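Honest question from a wet-lab person: if I give you the sequences of every part of a complex, can you actually get the arrangement of the whole thing, not just the pieces? Trying it with mine:
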Amino acid sequence: DARVTQTPRHKVTEMGQEVTMRCQPILGHNTVFWYRQTMMQGLELLAYFRNRAPLDDSGMPKDRFSAEMPDATLATLKIQPSEPRDSAVYFCASGSEAKNIQYFGAGTRLSVL
Amino acid sequence: GENVEQHPSTLSVQEGDSAVIKCTYSDSASNYFPWYKQELGKRPQLIIDIRSNVGEKKDQRIAVTLNKTAKHFSLHITETQPEDSAVYFCAASLGTGTASKLTFGTGTRLQVTL
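Yes, you can. This is the full assembly:
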């Protein structure tokens, strides 16, 4: 059963620290999405990539957030410096060219103190 | 951009009753409408989806209807069971085959009581 893998599952850090979240998409999937989930804002799209190229990062605060795909098996989301308002669950999802379905990872629960 | 509204925000039904969740979207070009179920502390999981060339789709106790003219779509769960308790999200997308970005509704917390 192929799954999207995210690490770490939980992260507690102090304000001002750098946070890196990682995502391994399902093998063969060429599209990767980063979402942030909070009680107040629900599920928000931060950025997404197709064939490793960024297609849309308009949902991402550019001053502190960055997203990359160093290779087809790894996507990263970095926050530097982190702030308490960044506390949320960050989900990665991947999809293929064959059909318009996104599969979500288990998420990274981030707490910034 | 696309805007998706979802109602109600919470829904409580008795086991065996039906549940209906409604969503409206703003972009008439949207053509793909998935529904995700998220149990507490878990990842969102696709439960059913519908494309704009179809008016209704059913999978066992779950059905989705789409009204393109009115730009709304609904999730229907019949014979609800306690394991149906979760948060349900609707979404809309302009995807035509390849995975495209989704705009999500704000979610409906469904509670099925015994």
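Two things worth pointing out. The radius of gyration of chain B is 13 Å. Chain B has no helices and eleven strands.
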